[in-house]
Design brief:
Blueprint lengths: L2 E4 L2 E4 L12 H6 L4 H12 L3 H15 L4 H19 L21 E3 L5 E3 H6 L30 H10 L1 H18 L3 H14 L4 H13 L3 H14 L4 H13 L3 H14 L5 H19 L8 H11 L10 H4 L16 H9 L2 H18 L32 E3 L5 E3 H10 L22 H10 L1 H19 L6 E7 L11 E3 L2 H12 L4 E5 L1 E2 L3 E2 L2 E12 L5 E19 L2 E8 L7 H23 L3 H11 L17 H9 L4 H9 L3 H17 L4
Helix pairs in contact: 2-3, 2-4, 3-4, 3-13, 3-16, 4-12, 4-13, 7-8, 7-9, 8-9, 9-10, 9-11, 10-11, 11-12, 12-13, 12-17, 18-21, 19-20, 22-26
């Protein structure tokens, strides 16, 4: 008997009359029960030692000829978990002229409230109500459900442009839809022919290639299915379904290693791993492991077997954890545990399964390829000769659409134009459909229209942009000798004092909206005058917040700013305007300043006493409307309008508008303090406090 020693095994050269095989006593103790090895592989997966884990499973597959599917499932779950953070960084690029859901030509285009467009059928199938491009939840601007077909309106402008620019692609999409119907009815061969017609009409339609790949797979024509899937991947390299169909074809051709790699590429492109995808990965991985198991060594090294005995008897390791504990998403593998794990001997098993372990490296390379994929971001072709500037005119202002928005009824207007129209009547100017909540919908700019104008009519777009900027500059208004401001004719307002407004007149809705659009966020406030329309003095109000109602009304939260004197009056689009100069208090220095401080402190104390002695109900009303009395500012005498508490006191005093106007126009802090002192003295004599 000739013996050769290799590793820790004893290989016996057999003769016809003598067959002896001896393993170490630890391996005999384990017998044919390989659960310890499977538990060890699961433990390695928790520590993300996937090379060692898959090698152990290969050897177990060889020794037992009955590898549990659950063991492979644990390995797959560990790999999926390790690649999940990377899948979150992948985004599917869609140009402005394609559906945000299927990335194909827009069939019956519908514009979502975020401004992106999609096929009507795609939106009806979507159950998330989240735009796939911007990840923003879209919602109906009417009370009717948006996922009910009769209430989903096609974008009229976009539909006309799609038909004009891409009639060939639309014809291909119709043929593809017919193929889909045939496939659903079970006429697989007929559907393959119809998909072929769609591809002949538009060879670059990746959906037709993908769908034909699926039909060919159903017909057991796996090689042809793989060819179509490859073509679909080439045409749209960031679409997960093409990878899934490619992997299915590879698995059917028994090319399991390639299939597993492509399945993981599909996974990182998916938003979440579906049960079907996970099941197919497990099946492909299982077949790959069992196939490679036939090439593995018949036995494990003696030292590795001894380590397994040590592993199984370690008091800190619970090998009988149930499935829920084993997949709770948190690994309890620690560096301390590695002392009982036979990683050194595992490397020997890895060395015997280099080809299989290289698959894990290829999976990693495939995933990185998807993550770092250089998107060409190609744009759908538009024939310049088919572009007509008149197709982009607003139906209200008859100019090139600027910041186009689409109403729920499917019509597109300049944002400013439709807002102004809705100020007067909450209905679409073209079809008269009621759209009462459109003001409140925060509808985004229709990307398809704006992107087309930018791309195909750059000169006209730049000219329209300049016109808009000139209008905004005019709204801001500036000059060497004063400023042109919009004027809200309503009530008295004072610097640093809150002034909430209920805006319902169309002219003031327009004025407030323009103040926001221009970025000024302010306007003048004056009281009415029968002689001149509004008073000679007023206060600038700064917009802090706006709350819109469904019918277009709004509550505007403002606070007083600078005082001004009116130099001239005007009117713009129904609301008043004025050229003004701003007022600033005269400066005070030296002994006069010390005298002013003394008088100021005395009068403020009297005012605080007066307010403290008010009836509780009146005091609650004042605090609810104007807030607390402002604190005294540092160096208040240097402020343009003096201390804020003076204006707060004037706002709550029972004075007529003439008296308030006189005090507002004063440029002397001392004179305003004297006026407040006189009024407080009069109220004290009348027993007010």
């Amino acid at each position: 008997m000739a013996c050769l020693r290799r590793d820790n095994r004893v290989i016996v050269k057999r003769t016809s009359d003598q067959v002896n095989f001896h393993q170490n006593e630890e391996a005999q103790a384990l017998g044919t029960d390989h659960q310890t090895f499977i538990d060890y592989a699961r433990w390695l997966c928790r520590g993300r030692k996937f090379n060692e884990a898959i090698s152990i499973l290969v050897v177990v597959s060889k020794l037992s000829n009955n590898l549990p599917m659950e063991a492979v499932k644990n390995l797959v779950e560990g790999l999926l978990e390790s690649y999940s953070p990377q899948s979150a960084t992948i985004s599917c690029y869609t140009d402005p002229w394609s559906c945000v859901f299927c990335s194909s030509v827009l069939e019956e285009p519908v514009t979502l409230t975020c401004g992106h467009s999609c096929c009507k059928k795609c939106m009806l199938r979507d159950v998330t109500s989240v735009c796939k491009k911007c990840k923003v939840k879209y919602s109906p601007v009417e009370e009717d459900p948006i996922d009910v077909e009769p209430y989903v309106k096609v974008n009229v402008v976009v539909s006309g442009l799609v038909t004009k620019y891409w009639s060939r692609e639309l014809e291909s999409a119709k043929l593809r839809a017919e193929g889909n119907r045939l496939y659903q009815r079970g006429s697989v061969e007929d559907s393959i022919k119809k998909y072929g017609e769609a591809i002949n009409t538009c060879p670059d339609d990746y959906l037709s290639h993908s769908n034909r790949s699926n039909a060919l797979f159903k017909a057991n024509r796996f090689s042809e299915a793989l060819e179509d899937a490859d073509k679909s991947v080439d045409l749209k390299s960031d679409w997960s379904k093409s990878y899934f169909r490619k992997a299915m074809a590879l698995a059917a051709l028994h090319r399991y290693e390639e299939a597993v790699i492509v399945f993981f590429q599909c996974f990182v492109l998916e938003e979440k791993c579906s049960k079907a995808l996970k099941m197919e990965i497990v099946k492909a991985m299982y077949k790959m492991i069992t196939a490679r198991g036939q090439e593995a060594e018949d036995t494990l090294p003696n030292s590795l077997s001894r380590s397994f005995v040590k592993f199984s008897s370690h008091p800190n390791l619970n090998l009988n954890q149930n499935k829920a504990e084993a997949s709770d998403g948190e690994s309890d593998y620690t560096e301390t545990d590695s002392e009982v794990l036979p990683s050194a001997d595992s490397s020997r098993v890895i060395a015997k399964n280099k080809r299989l372990n290289s698959v894990l490296n290829k999976i990693d390379e495939g995933v990185k390829k998807i993550i770092t994929l250089s998107q060409t971001k190609s744009q759908r072709y538009i024939n310049p000769e088919a572009v007509d500037k008149d197709d982009f005119d607003c139906a209200l202002c008859y100019r090139l659409l600027w910041q186009p928005v689409t109403t729920p009824c499917g019509h597109t207007y300049c944002r400013a134009c439709i807002d102004r129209s809705l100020d007067h009547k909450p209905e679409c100017p073209l079809c008269k459909a009621s759209i009462p909540a459109f003001h409140k919908s925060n509808t985004g700019v229709t990307e398809f229209v704006e992107a087309t104008v930018k791309r195909m009519l750059p000169g006209d777009y730049c000219q329209r942009q300049k016109t808009h900027e000139d209008e905004m500059n005019e709204l801001l208004g500036s000059g060497n000798d004063g400023s042109q401001i919009p004027v809200f004719v309503c009530t008295m307002s004072f610097p640093a004092v809150p002034c909430p407004l209920h805006v319902f007149e169309p002219r003031y809705r327009l004025m407030i909206r323009r103040a926001m659009e221009s970025g000024a966020r302010q306007f003048g406030m004056c009281v009415g005058s029968p002689e001149t329309g509004f008073s000679d003095y007023g206060t600038m109000l700064e917009i802090r917040d706006i709350q819109y109602f469904d019918d277009g009304r709004s509550v505007v939260d403002t606070i007083g700013g600078k005082r001004f004197r009116v130099l001239s009056r005007g009117v713009k689009d129904g609301y008043n305007t004025a050229k003004v100069e701003y007022l600033q208090d005269d400066s005070v220095e030296g002994n006069e300043l010390e005298s002013l401080k003394t008088a100021h402190d005395k009068i403020r104390a009297v005012a605080e006493t007066w307010f403290s002695k008010m009836e509780a109900e009146i005091k609650r009303g004042i605090l609810g409307h104007y807030g607390d009395m402002p604190s005294l500012e540092h160096e208040y005498w240097r402020l343009a309008s003096g201390p804020a508490w003076c204006w707060w006191v004037l706002a709550i005093m029972p004075l007529d508008s003439v008296a308030q106007q006189n005090i507002l126009s004063q440029k002397s802090l001392r004179e305003r303090l004297k006026a407040i002192e006189r009024i407080l003295g009069f109220m004290k004599r009348r027993g007010a406090f």
